Amino acid sequence: MKIAFIGLGNMGGGMAANLVKAGHDVNAFDLSEDALAAAKSNGCATFTDAGEAVHGVDGVVTMLPNGAIVKSVYTDSVIGRAPEGAVLLDCSTIDVATARETIAAAEAAGYAMVDAPVSGGIAAANGGTLTFMVGGSETAFDRAKPVLEAMGKAVIHAGDAGAGQTAKICNNMLLAITMIGTSEAMKMAEKLGLDPQKFYEISSQSTGYNWPLNDYTPLPGVGKESPADRDYQGGFATALMLKDLRLAMDAAETADAAVPLGSRAASLYEDFAGAGNGGLDFSAIIKTYR
Ligand code: NAD
């Protein structure tokens, strides 16, 4: 297929390179010259105008920072510029309402479109092992699936338009809550004189087991290797977790959903990021318990 890829940052750069490796022709567009140069070295054709990049393509993939940018890129440069009938895939993490609006506008103009946010960070984007949670019609999902399979290890149809974003923000709200709960329990065990390694051994095989404890332990030297063992460098940045928690809180308000733990997690991450820790892995929140 001939695919336009818009937004070649930390995530999009590797994803576009994997589309090239899978045999697709990729037209790359980004506002950053450095990102375009990297895309060129990975085998993409580069463009300085998004509308030209989508000319004559079979599909468009976007991986952009937020909903306002996604909306403007689709409104100004994709809808009405890409050939009618092209499949459109927005892989950015954005608010549910903008995802739904953008898909409705694309469908009204004759396109098939999905929201397809990802689980997995930069390493998974580079390695082609992302998990995609996809919202959209059956037809749009079927057309998007082969494109997504070239960039990921799992492609799951979550439901109608916006369902991918809903799955993503609910998952990450749960992740924040379990990370904070794990941090709190580990530090309390330590303060009560229990060796954290023993706590890990016991709780990871008991009813307290959960992903941050078992696979991403926030204390250095305990459990499997994780960002804690690298001074909280790499991994999933606190600033990105905060972005997802803010989206979750907005969505909860819109849906009138009760999220007492989610809102507490959001405010703890708000304080932690505000204290200059936005670049650290989100497991570094355990430092606030020291
Ligand atoms: P990034 O800032 O590294 O990349 C975004 C890219 O979009 C940049 O290269 C920027 O120049 C480009 N861009 C911005 N406005 C543009 C426009 N109008 N037209 C064309 N290009 C434009 O961000 P990222 O880390 O790659 O994240 C991208 C998306 O993926 C975000 O929605 C993020 O929440 C989501 N995400 C990121 C991670 C991660 O670990 N980094 C994990 C999961 C999901």
TrEMBL record:
Classification via PROSITE patterns: 3_HYDROXYISOBUT_DH
Name of the protein described by the UniProt record: 3-hydroxyisobutyrate dehydrogenase
Functional pathway: Amino-acid degradation; L-valine degradation
NCBIfam families given in the database record: HIBADH (TIGR01692)
Matches recorded under InterPro entries: 3-OH-isobutyrate_DH-rel_CS (IPR002204), 6-PGluconate_DH-like_C_sf (IPR008927), 6PGD_dom2 (IPR013328), 6PGDH_NADP-bd (IPR006115), HIBADH (IPR011548), HIBADH-like_NADP-bd (IPR029154), HIBADH-related (IPR015815), NAD(P)-bd_dom_sf (IPR036291)
Domain 3-hydroxyisobutyrate dehydrogenase-like NAD-binding: 162-289
Domain 6-phosphogluconate dehydrogenase NADP-binding: 2-159
Record-level Gene Ontology MF annotations: 3-hydroxyisobutyrate dehydrogenase activity
Keywords from the UniProt entry: Branched-chain amino acid catabolism, NAD, Oxidoreductase
Family in the record: Belongs to the HIBADH-related family.
Oxidoreductase as UniProt keyword: yes
UniProt-listed Enzyme Commission number(s): 1.1.1.31
Coiled-coil spans in chain: none
Enzymatic reactions: 3-hydroxy-2-methylpropanoate + NAD(+) = 2-methyl-3-oxopropanoate + NADH + H(+)
Organism ancestry: Bacteria, Pseudomonadati, Pseudomonadota, Alphaproteobacteria, Sphingomonadales
